[in-house]
Specification:
Low-confidence stretches: 1-46, 319-331
Keywords: Signal
Radius of gyration: 23 Å
Number of strands: 8
Strand order of the largest sheet: 1-2
Order of helices and strands: HHHHHHHHEEHEEHHEEHHHEE
Mean pLDDT: 85
Number of helices: 14
Structural class: mainly alpha
Number of domains: 2
């Protein structure tokens, strides 16, 4: 039985989270200036690790707590990225994310007002951003709203015929001195923002992409088990596990009429399993075992396949289980 997920209009945009590889920034200098560079670096670090970093952190918090403080707090932090420790920067970025998620409901309600939607839909073109939409209207009140949404850290998307703001995680990638786990988390989330995986009971990404994202999520959970964002990534990984082994209502893994596995899934899963055969991954090992059972069943969802799924990838008891998304924790 395919899991049932509420539509975006009823319960908000869900299952929003792609995985990108974590990049390592390597700095090197000329041999003749190594000593000077090292001394300068040491002095900079000394300045950053003094009380000045804590003072910036305190000021940031006060700005963020003010009414409509998202934009001011972000601008303040952006101008002081190099003046704070990695510890304080990470704390501020997480607090900024929390504030944006909290304010997203209000921004969504403001944009879903019928009159506002009508104005936007009349000028909207495919893949428009808040900025491009602003340049296509002379309505000052609409321009103000669109600018506020953009500067508050949101991104414009079309969901089921309506225009929504969602979290723009690419905006967090300018903070390059984050703790490793949060840097990885933001990269995962930014990729999800770039291409939403599912909408209204249907998958929007390919089967190989599903597996690669799930693998990156699994790596995060392996490497950062005590991270402040482990719950969010775990919920995301759980969603991708359902995508992988069941599909969604409108894009089931096994065709409703033929009961056969979707050909693209057969090819995509096999290709990734072969390509990552030497990878130590419980998730991919489970998928490989599943494919062995499916292959023996001639890619048909037989009782043997269903029994394997019931044991190894059971469906959640509650179909409205909590899932993390760009719109927060929702049912």
């Amino acid at each position: 039985m395919i899991p049932s997920y509420p539509s975006a209009k009823r319960n908000g945009l869900r299952f929003i989270m792609t995985a990108t590889a974590l990049a390592l920034l390597i700095q090197s200098g000329m041999a003749s200036t190594t000593g000077i560079a090292a001394a300068a670096s040491s002095q900079t670090e000394a300045k950053v690790t003094t009380n000045s970093s804590k003072a910036i952190y305190t000021t940031f918090q006060s700005k963020l707590k003010q009414k409509n403080g998202l934009i001011a707090a972000d601008a303040y932090l952006t101008n002081r990225i190099t003046q704070v420790t990695s510890h304080h920067l990470t704390l501020m970025v997480l607090q900024l994310e929390n504030a944006r998620l909290k304010s997203l409901t209000t921004m969504t309600d403001r944009m879903l007002v019928p009159n506002v939607q009508d104005k936007m839909m009349k000028i909207y073109q495919w893949n428009d951003t808040f900025t491009s939409l602003m340049g296509r209207t002379q309505d000052t009140s609409l321009q103000t709203l669109l600018k506020e949404a953009r500067d508050s850290g949101y991104k414009l998307v079309m969901i089921e015929g309506s225009l929504y703001p969602i979290m723009n995680y690419a905006a967090f990638q300018k903070y390059i001195n984050l703790k490793p786990d949060i840097s990885s988390y933001m990269n995962i989330m930014a990729a999800e923002t770039k291409k939403i995986p599912a909408e209204d009971g249907g998958l929007l990404i390919g089967y190989q992409e599903i597996l690669l994202r799930a693998r990156n999520q699994e790596l995060f959970l392996e490497h950062h088990p005590t991270s402040n964002r482990v719950k969010q990534v775990q919920n995301l990984f759980d969603s991708y596990t359902m995508y992988t082994f069941y599909g969604l209502n409108n894009t089931p893994l096994f065709d409703y009429e033929t009961n056969k596995m979707v050909p693209n899934a057969q090819k995509g899963y096999t290709a990734v399993i072969q390509r990552l055969a030497t990878t130590d991954s419980p998730f991919l090992d489970k998928l490989a075992a599943f494919m062995d059972v499916v292959r023996e069943a001639k890619y048909e969802k037989t009782t043997a396949v269903e029994a394997w799924l019931d044991i190894n990838v059971p469906l959640p008891n509650n179909s409205s289980h909590y899932t993390y998304s760009l719109r927060g924790i929702s049912r």
